Amino acid sequence: MVVAASVVVATGAVAGVLSAFDDRRVPDQARRPETSASPLLAPLPAVPSASPSATESASPTPVTSAPGTPSPTPSPSRTRKKQERTTPVSPRLYRHPDSQVLDWVRANSGDPRHAVIASRIADQPAAVWFADYSPDTLTARVAAVTSGGAARGRVPVLVPYTIPGRDCGGYSQGGAPDLDAYDAWIDRFAAGLGSGEVIVVLEPDSVAQAECLPSGERADRFASLARAGRVLKAANPRARVYFDAGHSGWNAPGKQAAWLRQAGAASPESSDGIFSNVSNFHTTADEVAYDRRVLDALGGPADLGAVIDTSRNGNGAPPDGTWCDPAGRKLGRAPTLSTGEDRIDAYLWVKLPGESDGCKGKPGTFTASYAYDLASS
Hints:
Strand order of the largest sheet: 1-2-3-4-5-6-7-8
Helix content: 25-40%
Largest sheet: 8 strands, parallel
Number of helices: 8
Radius of gyration: 19 Å
């Protein structure tokens, strides 16, 4: 859907942002984030375009004809300069060591795009998605991420993405076979949360896109999401759980808040607030204003907040509404728990820049040319 968050994963593919899908990934009380200036990405020196022999992640024929073409790479005539880290990295958020972008960086040290992709994308903390229905290994995979964050004193961001009827049967279709199976899957997910601080971005699109469901099925989904929030917070009282608010170009704040209330987002037993802009491109300013309106309409405790996906919103959303790897986008604000904005708890990279929506590569797969376009714009 044009209004929905862009595709994260196709059935059977690696989920967006960071992958935690296989068996290899084996202080203080939680507090609201402190307030300070939010970091911006600093300019980088010019880098030449890749030579024809440079290795790149596979970029197969797009599976959709959505408009958008890659922005041009820099001219080969530019002189390569020594690369230095110029991007601020959060001292509190966790960067999981397994991801598609890190795999590319490790395998392509000679690629002229390497320094830009490494410093501006691979070095940043990003969310870890759990989008496959594999309950037998789920607890161990979640625990591998949360224990890794706890060992370093950093906060991991996890994305459960297995609600039945996911994406209304669209590009990211899939999920658990039914809500009973989903409830059991959430129980296993919660068992891996540990006792450290963790942020849970609960089921992107599950609320904002719920209009595709008949009213009875929608109510059942919302009840299951409310239960999920309670289970997650009971398993780890330091977990902060956020519910799906779509984005500023989608549902009206009052409508979104009414659905969120049904899904448990106003209850402190289930929720710490809302998230918006996951895998989308709307400006941070628009999302801040929208999220505050949703929170006002939602009601609930005064300390409910919002987190915003800023991974690809540096140029805002395309005016024509294109959502599938649109050209001309760039990285947004660096991930941080210190936004300097009232009721905005964090800017996060929920969608990892460079992982395709399905037009510049297979959905959910890392495409170096796309990553470089975003990082060098």
